[in-house]
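Data availability (excerpt). The following record was deposited with the supplementary files.
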Amino acid sequence: MALTHLGCPACGGALAAAEGQRLVTCRYCRGTVLVDVPGALARYAVSLGVHQEGARAAAQQFLEQSGVPRALRAAHPRLESKLCYLPFYEFTAYRLGTFLLKETVKPPAPLGEESSPEALDRWRQEAPVAREDTRVVEASVLRVGPACRLPELGVERIPLESLRQSKTPAALDSFDLGDLQRRAVVFTPTEPPHRFREDAEWRIPVRSDRTGLVAQRLKLLYYPVWQVQFLYAGRPYQIAVDGVTGTILAAQAPVDLSPGIMPAVALLALAAFCVGRSVAEVLQTMAKVPGHGGMFLPPTLMLLGLLLAGLGWVALGTFRGEGELSLSGTDEAPRVEIGPTGGILDGIRQGMAEAMIRFRTGTGGGGGR
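Predicted structure:
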């Protein structure tokens, strides 16, 4: 990160201000200096709203879902948490100018004493008149987007733009890189700022639109996220908790699929019954009409039995394995993952696991409440 060397106006000592840092403390006289470097990207930290205990409580509530193994819920695993700050770009401006509005208008229909069948017919036949009007546009523009891609921390689910546009917008604190790095992990932006500015300014050109953006300003906001981690059966899992609202942004947790074994066994038993019934009818037919047993094979019942046997075998293999509750990206509820789903068979196993979790939790989402 580039450094700008300045002199303290109080004692003349050298100041070292990081890029975007506006408040600098002199290490000689301990005075605070406001630094404004032209062209520098202003940086702020979003105020922390959920502290460590609140983040652990939110993570523990996520682990109380029905799909999580009882052993994990009963053990109350030790939750290790650390604070992270994720960078976001915020573009603000005002759109000023005029817009030529073209519309078709028609006089109001004659009513009351002036109404008559002839007047109403003339009004219906009268064509609308095109009219042009110039409107003055004066509106604020706000665009917020992540400055790095971190799906494992649920950066796409952070509603920072909505929080900044609400009646009580998220408060911003002065940016002190050294202080943040002492108590949290601060991620560096990977997306170039000029690209985000271009995307925020982009719009379809319209001939009648004579507006432009003024007072443009691009800021870098650091958003707090708690990363809660725990161990289960020797495997690490993590849950990302929003440091402002306390919601779950991303999560991974083990899921218990063993209750699905009983339906799988029932499918196999039903398949055995169908196949056994078919074989019994074939044997009876062969005893009555020697040499024509195969002609009387009940194909429907046999095919149904084979299909149920296949589904039961796949279900048994699915529910004997391990699964994982996962929440990331734009998911509205946690989904069940049982491994890579690259083929049709893997897709069937995935659907079986999600159906079982939905049935157990009584929800329409995969494993959510």
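Summary of structural features: The first helix runs from residue 52 to 62.
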